[in-house]
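As a warm-up, study this chain.
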Amino acid sequence: MIGVALYSCCDNVKHDVKWCLLAVNNHCGVLVMPILWRKEMSVDASTIDDDHKLLIDLINSFEAVINQNPTIAALDRHLLQLRHYSIEHFKREEALQRAVHYPFYQAHAREHSDLVNRLETIIAHRTAARSGRDLTVVSREILALLKEWLVEHILRTDLRMRPYVAQMKAHQRKMAALTDQGAEGVSLPPFP
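Now compare it with the structure written out below.
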């Protein structure tokens, strides 16, 4: 099977995005376009990047399921897993932003909230789509939203955190040390 890539080519420090698509049909004749992690997408070479890589894997897995005539239960399982992990990632990322007084925190948190709301709406529509054709159409709409949002969000919004990475890593170590000592509810300062 020949793979397909969706990735960014960054021209300058401002990360002006150019979309590069390589599309090839797989052995089943279905167009497969998984997102591939690129070094240009790296925010911190640590927790945030690990979260982003897992989100990419979850989205690619959802696409693979769509291309295999999935059951509703299989789609639901993948969507709920993706929603759950996205929310956990957003909490982690926002906690680090608050800890370092990230100046774009509020706008960033709004983007996260908007995506969760859009995902909830789409999941509700997916639940209403019980027939094969409707289910496929809604599933592809979900996939398009997820791919566009994730890549665009990483490249346009998350990369703005790079100047704060050293501070964020210091807070990650403190939180990990407290968790290792058994501290359950690690409290971070509220954003001013």
